[in-house]
Amino acid sequence: MLKILIITQGLSRIVTPLVTSQHNVVAVLESAPRGARPGWPWRLLGRLRSKVAKAFFAVDNLQDYCRAEGIAYRMLYSSQDPGLPEWVNRFAPDLIVVHSMSQLLSKSIYSLPRLGAINLHPSLLPKYRGPNPDFWHYYDVDLTPGVTVHYIDEGEDTGDILAQGFINVPLGIKSPDRSQRLISEVGVRLLLQTLDALNAGTATRQPQPVHVSNRRARNLRAEEHATIIEWQQWPVERVWNVLRGTEQWLNAIAQPGGVYTGQRWSVGDYHVASTGQFQPGEVYRHEGHFRVACKEGYISLTRTFHLKFLLIHIVTRLLKQVAR
């Protein structure tokens, strides 16, 4: 049985399977959102956001989950957080397990456990190294996404590979469904198998190539959202694939306003048809139905008002203002 320290964001898909496995989760570090800083404003607003999510979505936050399970918990802002090495050493973990972390883990931390640290990365490494492989899979219309369990080293997703798997997905699959299949059904299984192999001393490791030709799976800058889709060049089905996969966060089209502020479009089907005078990328209304025009057709959009989304929108804006 391994003693494990988890680093993740929120109550991610790996937490419960690891806690209920034969291994012993001794502590959890929650990776703070990119740009977050220690201090009471962030703690207060982060807690408020969690309370809203729990009240309206029936979602427990990670801190409450750890408290209920009797697992030590700490928020992680960076590997240089004061007292972090001492906090990690207090639990003497055999291994650190990472999934969904907003910053790179430094050697001063990942070298503390006797077995080091491993990461569950949502791509077939060395493809799509970086923090946002999900988006670039959609962007490239890659319908065979994979997952990799690999050692953490000083590079970005460059450590030796321990296990890999992939799935086939249909065009236009939405992100929650894709993550359910890729992470919950494949990634978690590979992760648990890897833990068992490390515990038994039978794990094998495959070095990655140092240099790769494919793009880095970077995060988009805010100003790129409106220009990332090439409306005049892309066929409607490629636009549809990206909008469906990113409907929870990408602002490539104007989102609902007025009383619907804070809501997001639900992306329906696409249709190859004439859009008349409407320009690609333009949201318009036709016979009571919303659409976004594309070069060769249109994509159906629907909107529904939910108070919970408005409240989340307000709290998120407050968090962004605090971060400035």
TrEMBL record:
InterPro entries: Formyl_trans_C (IPR005793), Formyl_transf_N (IPR002376), Formyl_transf_N_sf (IPR036477), Formyl_transferase-like_C_sf (IPR011034). GO terms for molecular function: methionyl-tRNA formyltransferase activity. The keyword Chaperone does not apply. Residues 226-302 form the Formyl transferase C-terminal domain. Coiled coil: none annotated. Keywords: Transferase. It holds the Pfam family Formyl_trans_N. The keyword Transferase applies. Transmembrane segments: none annotated. Residues 81-171 form the Formyl transferase N-terminal domain. GO terms for cellular component: cytosol. PANTHER family: METHIONYL-TRNA FORMYLTRANSFERASE, METHIONYL-TRNA FORMYLTRANSFERASE, MITOCHONDRIAL. This is Methionyl-tRNA formyltransferase. It comes from Pseudomonas mosselii.
